[in-house]
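Predict the 3D structure for this chain.
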Amino acid sequence: MAKKSVSTKRLNAANLASLGAPALADLLIEMGEQDAAWKRRLRMELAAAVGPEPLADEIDKRIAALAAGRARVSWRKRPDLIRELRGLKTMIVERLAGLDAASALDRLVDWFDLQPGLAGRVKDPKGEVADLFVESAPDLAIVANLTPLTAPERLAAATLRRPLAWVRWLEPAAPNLAPALTRDLLNRLAPTEEGVTPGLRPVIRLLAEASDDVDALIRVLPLAERKQPDMASALADRLIAAGRLSEARLTLESADWDASPSRWSLRRAAPKTVPEAFILSEIALLEAEGRSAEAQDARWRLFEAALSQTALRDFVTRLPDFEDVEALDRAFAFVAAGPNARDALTFLMSWPALREAARLIENRQSELPRSLPEADAWAGRLEHRYPAAAAILHDRRA
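Done. Predicted structure below.
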């Protein structure tokens, strides 16, 4: 007698389906009797087949039970709890949301609200339970986007109750929220300057940044923070994009440099202590004000002062044909003659300007470090056209 194919013993959907619905039902009932979580899942699946209301009732029962629990959860039981929480969320996002999105959002908010209570009674030194909720934030955005008219009110109410918890979930969710929904939520949480309470500031800030609402961002940031150079440049960029040039200039000019003598000026080279982003914001403002020649001059000086690739690329793209080639030749020559051979080589390889990089390696090999972490990668890019330079780099493997 021929042996039965071993493939029929594999656990896959096709082989299990061959057992037939009655046999599978018996197996599931048996599993449900042995595992309470499986039994609850089966009840939810049956409820989902009836409609959204029975499924919502089953979900409510389990969320209420988890919220009311007071018993400590040991490290042995933690994986079971995480598995159940994940399964509960799946029923909300993948089953209930397709039947009734508004009902699903209500239950998903309640699911997230479980986390603060669980944190106090689950032995979780690695933060696995907390991570589950953060990882589920994109699901929150998916379900909220299905109900853009009611979601802002529901999310605002939840955030007002627990702002410190919800900021952790809204931060990864915000980039995926529909722009109109984000703006509506932002307006509900911070309708006026007086309405921004300290506990809500982190939430308002991330929503303002996600919706590119510069006015809300200005309202929520303390004056001292708005004057920090990195924040001043970020605000100025948004104001420039909105065409509010006078406000952008005032924002940059109000940046607090602690009266340092190294204050950046577009009339002299930029000190290395000044963030490049701030200088680029000043240049962008010059361009927006129609002062293109000054902006080009500032880009070149920033390139020379900090070997800024961004500044050089912006400079070159604004030049007429042929002039851009001459400018790049001049720039690469400036880089290659710089005092630090390692920095110069890093710039040229990153641009990439492989011909100039190979020439630098051959001409200034004695100035290069004896050990270069990038040696193999750089050599691999050079060895076909510039084997001599590649051989020098191979001798400087880290």
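The CA atoms of residues 287 and 293 lie 8 Å apart.
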